[in-house]
Structure formats: C-alpha cells, structure tokens
TrEMBL record:
InterPro entries: PBECR3, Phage_head_morphogenesis_dom. This is Phage Mu protein F like protein. It comes from the Bacteria. It comes from Pseudomonas segetis. Pfam families: PBECR3 (PF18812), Phage_Mu_F (PF04233).
C-alpha cells in the first residue's frame, strides 16, 4: 500500500507484487489438460492453470513453470519466448495454434504471456481492493494506443460503488490483450482526484447477455473466488521479498512440486540468469543494484532426503541460490591461471549457466564438511561433461532457507 492508503499500481508486465504471485501460485496445484481454449471457463481459471491444446502432464508442467517465472519474477516476453521454444522441442509438441510460422509463434506466445500476466495482475489488485476497504472503484482504460476498444475508452473514469453488480462482469481484463485496470477511492471526491467521474453513466446494455466490450468468456471478475485466500497467502511474503520466487509452494503436492522445480531448472532463461548474474558481479556492478540472491529453484524431495541423511538437517522448502559473495569467492580461488597446476581450469561467467543442469542431472549430494568462515554445513554435487568435472559446493543457510553456492570449480581430465 502507498502512504495514502491507495494500493500501489505496479507495471502490469513488470515487477510483480505479493498478491499477484499468490494468485498464480495458488493455481499450480491444479494443472488442467485441455484441447481448446474454452475447455475451462470464466472463474474456473481462478483455481486451475491451462494452455489450450496442452494435454500431456510433462508439457503442461513445463509451460506452467515458464508462465510462473514470467509472473512471479517479472520476466520479459523475450525470455518467455525462448523458454517456450525449448519446451515445445523438448516435449515434441505439435499441432498448437500458431505453429509453423514466426508470426504464429509470436502471436501465441504473446497471448499466453499477456493473458496470464493480466489476469494475475487484476486478481492481485482485486485482493488489494477488498483488503483496503475502498468504497468506490474507478475503471481506467489502458488498451493498445493503436487499436483501442471504443467501449473500453467510454468506460475510462467510470466510478461506481465497490459492490455495484457492474464489477462482477466488467472488472478487467475484459478480453484478449485488454490491459485496463481498476483503482480504489474512499469517497467520490477522492475518486475525482484520481481521474474518476462519479457522474459518468454506465454503458447501455452492460447487463445484457451480449454486453458491449466484453470478449467471449471474459464476463467475470478474475480472482473473486480466491480473493481471501490470495490475501492470506500474500501476507506470508511481506517480510522477505527476495523469497517471493519460491513462496506459496508448500501447498502444492510433493510430486508436482518436484516436477515444477526440475522444469524450472530446465528453462534456458534460468541458465541465462545464472550466467548473467555472475557476469554482473565480475564486471563490478554495484551490489545494491543486484538481487540479493539468484534462485535456481527448490530442492526436490530427493535432495531434502539426502541432506537430512548426511547432515541430519531438515531443509524442506529450501531453494538453491547464488549470491554476490559466492561469485567473488570463486573468482578469487578458482578464477586464475593457478588452477592449471591443480589439474583444473579457471572458472568463467559462462560456466555458471551449467549450474541448473548440474542440480537436475548430476549424482547425489555429498557431505562436504563445514564452512571455515561460518561453520555452516556444506554439501557438494558433481557432474562430468566430456573431459571436465564441474564441482559445486553449497552452504546450508537455515535462516534464509537456502542452499547457497559456497564455491565452484572445474577439474580437467588429462
């Protein structure tokens, strides 16, 4: 909330907020296979995730993770498109609408991305509006500048009581690509200060079966079924925003949670992020401008069990992560030419891109003793590719509920 009590308006396709992430994460426990876009309708989308034509479980899980990354981490459309191509190839998915042309793929990925970003944004805003107790809601037009919907333009500034039945049908988005939104006010005068017009008339026919300005299937209020749940879930992350990418997953069944974690690490954009994070640290970027941690996804149940077996520590709900100090440590200890005398080669920023794959595909976690500086428990995992063995050592940080990279080196087979 802003200081004046008004819910803060975040960029729709940019930095996520707690309620938005909570809404989408609440759907991950119910992945719905479908053949057509209208196989699930209206507010059924509040409690289930689907992509039209995605019927196989592995495919749907991969797509859910790619969309979740866009929503929960504010990833751009470019990253989503790269992940989408990888998912299509990995799963051998054919017959999807848009397949076969660059324009078709761009349209389909944009539709999936924007629809989930907008509905999660609007549902999160709805939870904020309810929680804030605003008596008046104001409709704000935000459609495409080139192709605005005339009906949505006419609604701009419309101010009605929060409980008016109009909002049950016209709470945005009201169609494919719609980016309209609603803000709250505590009085008619307050609504006017926000650009609202309490004297504005509702569109004729707003309550008819063929209400103007609403695409088929969009005549409902996204998030209404789960507003209280979303508010409750969002409160869990207020104190630790750096953990928002892993929040709310405890309610997802363990098997599905493991599948989601492995799918996350299989996304090309996650490998890219690990590399870019290391590049920024090595370049000397201001640490205050870097994320405190770069997550690499949750531990699987198998990882949790291995840590408990070798360290007698419960790490349920922990994720793997990078931080600035780890990259700097690796550069000091394993980034120079002296590595050759140890039968190793210098670690570069490019090597960090392999960490997500190492965490998914390498052998078991191994006891690596205790950290000399913090006395924290250490575990390591190794993976050999061609004639090189990558060794990553992670420190168990209980307060952060993370396994954070402690050191990283590459052995070269002679």
């Amino acid at each position: 909330m802003a200081d004046n009590g008004q819910p803060t308006l975040r960029p729709v396709l940019g930095q996520p907020f707690a309620e938005q992430v909570a809404f989408f994460r609440n759907k991950l426990g119910n992945l719905v296979p479908t053949a057509r876009w209208d196989d699930i309708k209206r507010d059924a989308h509040d409690t289930g995730f689907m992509v039209a034509g995605a019927a196989k479980a592995d495919l749907l899980t991969d797509l859910a993770v790619a969309v979740d990354r866009a929503v929960s981490e504010g990833r751009g459309l470019g990253d989503f498109r790269k992940d989408f191509r990888s998912i299509v190839e990995r799963n051998g998915w054919h017959g999807w609408t848009g397949e076969g042309t660059r324009a078709g793929e761009r349209w389909r990925t944009r539709t999936i991305y924007q629809t989930n970003a907008m509905t999660s944004y609007s549902a999160g805003r709805l939870a904020q509006l309810h929680d804030g107790g605003f008596d008046f809601w104001v409709y704000k037009h935000n459609d495409s500048v080139r192709n605005p919907r005339p009906e949505h333009q006419k609604l701009d500034g419309l101010t009605l009581p929060a409980k008016h039945p109009f909002w049950k049908r016209y709470y945005p988005p009201n169609g494919w690509g719609c980016q309209c939104y609603v803000i709250g006010a505590r009085s008619a005068a307050g609504a006017r200060r926000l650009g609202g017009d309490p004297d504005k008339q509702i569109l004729d026919g707003w309550d008819a079966d063929d209400a103007p300005g609403i695409d088929e299937g969009w005549d409902y209020q996204p998030g209404a079924r789960v507003a209280q749940t979303v508010t409750h879930m969002a409160e869990k992350s207020r104190a630790w925003p750096y953990e928002i990418a892993k929040a709310y997953m405890t309610g997802v069944p363990e098997l599905l949670r493991d599948q989601l974690a492995k799918s996350y690490r299989a996304l090309p954009s996650v490998a890219d992020d690990s590399r870019r994070y290391a590049q920024r640290v090595l370049r000397g970027d201001n640490p205050d401008q870097l994320p405190a941690y770069r997550t690499m996804g949750l531990l699987t149940a198998g990882d949790v069990g291995q840590v408990h077996q070798i360290k007698d520590i419960a790490v349920d709900g922990y994720d793997y992560a990078l931080d600035v100090s780890a990259v700097r440590h690796v550069q000091r200890k394993h980034g120079g030419k002296s590595e050759h005398s140890r039968g190793q080669r210098p670690v570069t920023a490019e090597d960090y891109a392999i960490l997500p794959k190492l965490l998914n595909d390498a052998g078991p976690l191994i006891d690596a003793g205790l950290s000399e500086s913090t006395n924290s428990p250490l575990v390591r995992r190794e993976m050999t590719v061609d004639n090189e063995t990558y060794v990553a050592v992670f420190e168990v940080r209980r307060k952060r509920k993370m396994l954070v990279l402690q050191t990283f080196y590459v052995r070269v087979r002679k």
